[in-house]
Design goal:
It is built from 18 helices and nine strands. The protein has 345 residues and is α/β, with parallel strands linked by helices. It has two domains: 249 residues, Aldolase class I (TIM Barrel), CATH 3.20.20; 84 residues. An eight-stranded parallel beta barrel has the order 1-2-4-5-6-7-8-9. Strand 8, helix 10 and strand 9 form a beta-alpha-beta unit. Helix 4 packs parallel to helix 6 and helix 17 packs antiparallel against helix 18. It starts with 5 loop residues before the first strand and ends with a helix. Bound molecules: flavin mononucleotide.
């Protein structure tokens, strides 16, 4: 049940190997895009990154590089070939101040030649069957269909990149606030639908503010796939809904956007067995991480978003966060689960 149609977006500094483990507990076969790694950062710290790559599920995790030096990119790909990632993604969407200063991410979007050189470097350096994709926005400061068509058309013509993940926004000029550039610029899905219609031979994935099954269902009638970032991070149970949707399209009819978590997992103020099951299944993982002296907070911080959009969410979150401090003295993980849920089972 691996789907190319619904993908988890890279969220630099938010997603990590613990969140990947947790997400795959909720939905085993889901493709997750790893947060961007700058080529020079990789080359100066490759042992550190390789150590992480070794722990990833390389069939289902996609690596993303960012940068503008195609020779460096070539070296990076040669180094990571041993991990046999199925897809390598090049970031053309990052809009930070440092991206502007160093000319990478979205600021490359007006420089076709450089992008083409970078993508051709990836192709030359990589294993034969690797998928090459880019993640970009509609454009830099303005939205123009002709520009987008030209951009995607040219890149697909001169490189082996046939997969385009499009965050359906542009950015604001001279405003480097991530918040603004992720929330305040206009989202234009229609332009991406049109692109897919005109370039139907390409794999077009739509991204931006997708938060429920109704959105997914609608977009999938126009494009090849959707990518979801914050909609999953802040509501991981969305993955369970996605899993059910893939198994059974009719599931959407029973899906209540507003009260989804509340109805399915926390019905009538009682916790569903499924939530307990998730916590129970985390046991081995948590024990293993504890042995490695990993701070438990780094694992739990992702999991507490399970309690989004439900009554008593703050009680659960507080109990979990409080219990972390004395988790070391808990001999029995079941006690820990009981402590969190005691009034709700
Ligand atoms: C905290 C954070 C980190 C992000 N890191 C990356 C990244 O490393 N690479 C990338 O291509 N996009 C990154 N993005 C953009 C997201 O992948 C995605 O395009 C954007 O959040 C819109 O999708 P969403 O509304 O589903 O979250 C990041 C966004 C956020 C909020």
């Amino acid at each position: 049940m691996l789907t190319n149609k619904i993908l988890v977006a890279p969220l630099f500094k938010y997603l990590d190997i613990h969140s990947y483990y947790f997400y795959r507990l909720l939905m085993k076969n889901i493709y997750i895009y790893n947060g961007m790694i700058h080529t020079s950062s990789y080359l100066s710290n490759y042992k550190y990154y390789n150590n992480i790559f070794r722990k990833l599920n390389n069939k289902n995790t996609i690596i993303q590089f960012v940068g503008n030096n195609y020779k460096d990119l070539y070296k990076c790909i040669r180094y990571i070939n041993i991990f046999k990632f199925r897809e390598i993604n090049f970031n053309l969407g990052c809009s930070s101040k440092s991206a502007k200063r160093c000319n990478y991410g979205i600021y490359l979007m007006n420089n076709y030649n450089l992008i083409i050189n970078c993508l051709n470097s990836i192709k030359e350096a990589s294993n034969i069957d690797v998928i090459i994709s880019i993640k970009h926005r509609l454009g830099l400061y303005n939205i123009s269909y002709d520009y987008l068509l030209d951009f995607v058309g040219n890149i697909s013509l001169y490189t082996s990149c046939k997969k385009f993940i499009i965050h359906a926004r542009n950015i604001l000029k001279n405003n480097y606030s991530t918040y603004f550039n992720l929330n305040k610029t206009i989202l234009d899905y229609e332009i991406v639908y049109k692109l897919k219609k005109d370039l139907s031979h390409l794999n077009i994935i739509l991204n931006g503010n997708i938060k429920n099954l109704f959105d997914i269902n609608k977009h999938l009638s126009y494009v090849d796939g959707v990518m979801i970032g914050r909609g999953i991070y802040f509501n991981p149970l969305f993955l369970v809904a996605i899993k059910n949707y893939i198994l059974n399209k009719n599931y959407i009819n029973n899906y209540d956007i507003e009260n989804f978590n509340q109805n399915l997992f926390f019905n009538k103020n009682k916790i569903s067995k499924y939530i307990i099951f998730i916590f129970y299944n985390l046991y081995n993982y948590i024990v293993l991480q504890k042995k490695k002296n990993i701070n438990l907070y780094n694992i739990i911080k992702h999991i507490i978003y399970i309690f989004n959009n439900i009554k008593n969410a703050s009680i659960f979150r507080n109990r979990i966060l409080r219990s972390i401090n004395y988790f070391n003295s808990f001999n029995n993980y079941l006690d820990f689960i009981y402590f969190i849920f005691k009034d709700f089972i």
